[in-house]
Amino acid sequence: xxxxxxxxxxxxxxxxxxxxxxxxxxxxxxxxxxxxxxxxxxxxxxxxxxxxxxxxxxxxxxxxxxxxxxxxxxxxxxxxxxxxxxxxxxxxxxxxxxxxxxxxxxxxxxx
Length: 111
Fold this sequence. Notes:
Elements: H1 18-37, H2 46-56, H3 63-70, H4 75-83, H5 92-107
Helix pairs in contact: 1-2, 2-3, 2-5, 4-5
């Protein structure tokens, strides 16, 4: 088991570490809970959309990474990245919730 607490390059939990696994479980719980309690006629909160983006982005420079870290989103690039995310990498309800969030933001003129 990898118990290295931090990645020395950027001072974040190292992939595969105990801390990393705990963070993944907490993120999953927070996302699942937020989706479950969001009324059907509303979108998930910004914080949840950013957390989903943080769990699936392809690395620095990607639209989803930028959205996760800053809250600013390039809707076209983010939608394209989301569309090309494997169904095995993202639960269907997370994909739907993030798509609805991004669509609603565009419809409300926040693009």
